[in-house]
Amino acid sequence: MSKLIVTPAPHIKDSDTVSKQMRNVFIALIPALIASVIFFGTNALVVIITTVLSSVLFEVIILKIRKKAIKKSDISSSALTGLLLAFCVSSFMPWWIMILASFIAIAVAKHAFGGLGFNIFNPALAARAFILASWPVLMTTWLAPYAAITSATPLELLKENGISADYLTMFIGNHAGSIGETSAIALLIGALYLLVTRTIDFRVPASYLITVVAMSLVMGQDIVFQLLAGGLILGAFFMATDPVTSPVTKPGRWVFGAGCGFITMIIRVWGGYPEGVCYSILIMNAVVPLLDRYLQGRIFGCKRWNVV
Amino acid sequence: MNLLKEFYKGIFSENPVLRILLGLCATMAVTTSLINGVGMGLATSFVLILSNVIISSIRKIIPDKVRIPVMIIVIATFTTIVDLILAAYFPPLSKALGIFIPLIVVNCIIFGRAEAFASRYPVFDSFLDGLTKGAGFTVTLMFVGFIRESLGRQVLVMILPPGAFLLIGFLVGAMNLIERWQKGLNPR
């Protein structure tokens, strides 16, 4: 028995590939992309293109330096990292900050740990945390849609002034915020596509959102507001479900999502920042190896859960 | 020649922070500016050199079983002296370094050298060992403090704790890379 090796790996293979999954996520992000260009204009498009191109460029350069073959999956995954990174910043971020952030995402958060499939932390969120710590003013100033005036996000308004936004505005995304997070409806269309095509597993976003609802009830917060506000939908469906940095086991995924929801609400209600999605996912990323190890789920053919 | 080699070892090939990975807490905590780094480096070097000399000179009369408490007393004595001198003559530096001056007592570099070197070798060798390792520590802290202070004006995160972790990680990686190149050029 001591020689028994437990692998959570695929024993049955199908035609699914990394680049295919990445393509599905890209397709799912198109509605949010269109919404961001409608609300924040061509500036948003410039930020997105800069970030995606520089991410791919850094990926190619680092693969060359590491003397690795450049595969389709590397290109598509780094482009997706760039897109997600651009989605969580404001539309007036200077281009050089976005290039530096792409470098942090690809070189530090991804390749310093061994490249695609080996990174502990979500590269886009790690880079976002880096630029949030470096340029706190730029990262907490937001533009109102259709206009060049600064405005606060609904979560900032709630935290600083106690004002709640109306649900329809938040659902459509017609309010200040980062490029890709504002439009709940566009993100939900994409999320539905991902769930239908089985690109992502429903467990992580489900337990994430359920925990946020439960925590809102316990803490006396407005449930619908908390669900629609900030980067929750973007984070729950597109970032927490990153196959590299989320658990592979089913019970691990439930716990992972619940932990993200718990930390998000703690930061939102009691923390110094108005939004906690980024940090909650990063913190839970760090415990993914533990979750995978201790919550392995029921092995086929066994009656009881195999909890080490 | 021998002296140069010892300094080379202290600063590069056996750098206490970047090669042996000791004293990381002090390195990360106080290097927010060049002057803090130099101050911390010199204070630690002072304690390191003098405790090495004292421990080496009494190494034959310390009973083996109580050598750790004896070392702690010697190191704590010099740390207290440094603490009081800094507070008396360099109040701003003393204020900036704060709790990390008393914490020199538990700096692993000093313990490591006392245990591994000073308790086995003669006084002058131990003095030299403290001097070179202290120089390595001071140079490293100066360098880290210089980079963090200059980058921190543009990129705020370099002044904050995450910047220290990132920078030390990069420097340790660079040292490993340099060592690999040296080994590749003249394989032993």
Automatic annotation (TrEMBL), chain A:
Positions bearing FMN phosphoryl threonine: 153
One cellular-component annotation, GO: plasma membrane
Subcellular location per the Swiss-Prot or TrEMBL entry: Cell membrane
EC code: 7.-.-.-
InterPro entries the UniProt entry points to: NqrB/RnfD, RnfD_bac
Gene Ontology BP annotations: electron transport chain; transmembrane transport
Chain segments annotated as transmembrane: 21-39, 45-63, 83-109, 129-149, 170-196, 208-240, 252-271
Predominant location category: membrane
Cofactor(s) demanded: FMN
Keyword terms: Cell membrane, Electron transport, Flavoprotein, FMN, Membrane, Phosphoprotein, Translocase, Transmembrane, Transmembrane helix, Transport
Enzymatic class: translocase
Membrane topology summary: Multi-pass membrane protein
Similarity-based family: Belongs to the NqrB/RnfD family.
Biological role stated in the UniProt entry: Part of a membrane-bound complex that couples electron transfer with translocation of ions across the membrane.
Family annotation (NCBIfam families): rnfD
Subunit annotation: The complex is composed of six subunits: RnfA, RnfB, RnfC, RnfD, RnfE and RnfG.
Protein name, per record: Ion-translocating oxidoreductase complex subunit D
Organism, scientific name: Candidatus Saganbacteria bacterium
